[in-house]
Structures are given as structure tokens and as C-alpha cells.
Amino acid sequence: MADSKRPDLNFEVGYDLKSQKATFSIGISNIFERVGKRQFGFSASRWWTKRKGKVDAKHLLPLTSATRPDGREEEIHTQRDQQLTKVSSAVTQLTQDADDWITDHKPESLNADTLKSDIRAALNGALAPYRRRFQDTREEFVDSLAQYQEFRNENNLRRHAEVPLFFLKPFVILLALLLFETLVNSAIFAGISAQGLIGGWITAVMISTVNILLGLVFGILIIRYARIMEGHYKYALMAAGGLLVIAATFFNLYVAHFREVAEEAIIASQSGEIALTRAMAPRFNDAWPHFLQNPFNLGTVLGVALFVIGLCVFGWATYEGYRGFTDPFPGFGKVGKRFFIMRILRVGLEDAARQAGFDVLDRARERIDTSSRLHSHFKNQVSIAVSFAQRLSKAAATAESRINNHAWSLLSAYRSSNRRQRIKMHRKATRKPIANLPDPGDPPNYFDEDPRSNGQWVSVVPDADSLAARAGSALDGIDRNIETLDIARKYISDLRASIDEQLRQALDEEDMTLNRQAAEIIDIKPSKVKTIKNEAA
């Protein structure tokens, strides 16, 4: 607050909502510098004061036996009191403003246990929905776990199911195989196809599709079931498998012979032996005589390449059919996939709960950091208030001293003039007694007293001790709060470091047991599994 009548005295307090910082500024620049200047009133010039002393002496004022000031001296005392009242009011108002500011902005006392309890409650509140979701999926997870264990025990399986959780993976691999063989075969057939590149590509797609289908049938229906069948069924599947391998071999041999027949026709057409048209171009079934003549006689490198590539694609498709889509053991993949999906779902819930706990702790730490910064800022402002109290007390004492000294200088001038006038009038009256001149007599006794030293002028300016005490109390409270915030910050760090422990305390013992059993079933070391258990508080 700034007083327009005292522009040298400025004291401003406030709060910036945008930056969330308190503002506290003081400006004291010789606030009583004008005191004692020569202006009408208390600071009147000395000649006017001396003149008034002479006039009072002629009017025999004050009396010789007077003990209290009278005349002009009384006016000096009155004006001195008025000036000190202004100083006292200013100091009182500023002190009260500073005190009110400290009181309004003083933070409430924080309790470490309360902060810890609030942080714990917020963490438990964030984890509560995940506990319900764990309970909702528990029954199905228990059922899938029981079926998985039962299937393994019934079939004497000592391993866990091999299930591609990404169900599109085998399809992607098979499409890649199809694309690879198609590109290679189309390049090989392009030179001998009457339709050119398109004809070669169509032929290559047909051949690649047949090889992949044969491999899938061999892997899915024959190898997988032949391993678990016994007796005649097993021998029948083995015989069917052998026939399927022979069929795949001879199919790829036939493809190679077809390529050679088509190439011979193209060469004969180029040499003029025959007129090869699109209608007369060799068809796929025209290679039978050449194939039956000697199936294993391949006369070109490209024919051998077709045969090798076809068998490789057949073998890879067989492997994907055997192990790519599901577990090699029939039925185990379906049971294992259900169990693994439920396992992954619950592990995902645990990770989500862990992340939710981290988010809550991060928000709490951010709020505590913000509170700590505000406390530190307010501490600096209170320190400024303490400095202000010291400067205000010193300035008030200086102002009072100046006012007293100036008043005493006027009193001294008045008394000196009055004393000289009395001596002069006394001499005249003594020399001419018959003239009956007025004789003021000796100066009053109080003329020899200095009100500054005899205790007459008691200091009326209030000190700033109460403000300093309030500021000190605020500083102590701020320091205690900062220590409490540090404790809460360390508590958050401990919770973050032991988030798994918090999850164990927030979730059920049954969830811990299920996760441990699942980890043991799929042969994962317990040290590498994030289990969820509930420890006694």
C-alpha cells in the first residue's frame, strides 16, 4: 500500500495467480527526509521562532516560576507530537500490513503421517479397479489352468505348449513362401510360355499352391496324428504319408519335365521346324510321354532348380503345418492357447496396475514438488519481511530522532531569543526604575531542561518486534513443512521402488498363488516372474 501523502514510503503485497507466487515489495527511501525542512508549520524558519520568543518575552510569557511550556514553545511541542503521531501511525499500519500478509500466506502445518496416509489411499484407490478385474477373470483362469495341467498329466507331457500367440504368423510365412516360389517359378517359366510373363506367373502360382497344400496336409493331418496313433491307424497314416511324399516328389519332377517339353517346343519354333502358335503351345498334361519315358532324367539346370525349389517349399510348408499353427501334439495347442491367453491377460493387468501406481505416485510427487517450491518462495518472502521489519524499526527510530532534534533546535532558538529579550528588558527596568518599565524577571526554570534527556519526550514510535517474531514463527513453520514434504517425497520414492510390494498388498493371495503356479507350469524361473501376492500387513 502506498500513501499518496508519503510517496517516499512504499509497501506492496499481493499474489500472482498466473505464476502462483506471492509478491512482497518494500520501498523506503529516507521516508522522513522532508522532516525539518523550512516550511510553514512545525518546520518554520528560525527567525520566525526567534521573533516569537521576543514577543513572548515582552508579554512576560511564560512566567518566571512556570514549570510547563507556554506560548510558542507549546506550539512546538504540539507540532512535534503531531509529527510523531504520523510516524507512529505509518509504522503501525505498515507493521500490521506485513503481519496480515504473513498471517494470510502462512501455510498450514503439514503432518507426515497424514501425507503418507493420503498417498497410500490414492495408490489403493488406483489399484482397486484392477483388483476387481483380477477377480472377474479369476474363474476362467483357474479353469484354463486346471485343463492345462490335466491335459499334460493325461498325455504325460513334460513340456509346455508351443502356441504361436500371433495367429497370423504361419499365414504370413506361407504367403512369403508362395510369393518366393511364384517369383522364382514365373521367372523360369516366362521364357517358355506362349503367354509370356503372365502365362509363366499363372503356371508358377498353380505349382506353388499345390506344393504348399501338399505340405500342409502332410504336416497337419499325417505327421501330427501319426505320432500319437498306435496300431493299424499309425501304419495307415505312415503309408499315406509316404504316398504323399512320393506324390510331391513326382509332381515336382513332372513340373520340371513340363518345363523341358515347353522349352523344346520353343526352340523348334525358333529354328523353323514347326510353326508354334498359342493354340498349338504345349499344355501341362502334354508332358506325360516325356515324363514316363524317364522320370528322373532332367536335362536342364532350370529343370533341376524347379524340382529342388518345389521340394524345399513342400518341406517348409510341412513344417509350418506341423508346428506353425498350433502345438505338434493334437489338442494340446487349443488348451495351451487358452491358458496362455489368460496368463498374458492377467500379466497385462498386472503391468497396467503397476503403471497406474506409477502414475499416481508421479502425480503425488509433482504436487509435493510444487508445494515445496511454494514453501521455498514464501520462505524467501518472509525473509524479506524480516528485513523490512528491521529497516522499518531503524527508519522509525531515525525519524523520531530527527523530529526531536529539530524540535529541540526550535526550542533552543526560542529560549535563546526569549532569554536575551528578558535580560535586555530587565536591564532597562533596572536602569530606569522611575519609568516603570516591565521587568520579565529571570527565565523559567524549565528553560534549562532538555526534554530529550530528562525523559519528557518518551518514544512513541512502536517497534517491529512483534512482526519479527511473527516472521520467525512463520519461518519455523515453513522449515517444518519443508522437512515434512521431504519425508513424503522419500516415502513416494520408497513406494515407487517397491511397487511390486504395494501390488502384493493391494491384491489377493489367490492371485499370487495362481501366478506362481502358472510360472511353474510354463517352466519360467520364479525370479523372472512378477508374481502378485498378499502379504500380511
UniProtKB/TrEMBL annotation:
The keyword Transmembrane helix applies. Keywords: Membrane, Transmembrane, Transmembrane helix. The chain crosses the membrane at residues 166-192, 198-223, 235-255, 298-319. Residues 419-431 have a biased composition (Basic residues). Residues 419-452 are annotated as: Disordered. The keyword Iron-sulfur does not apply. This is Transmembrane protein.
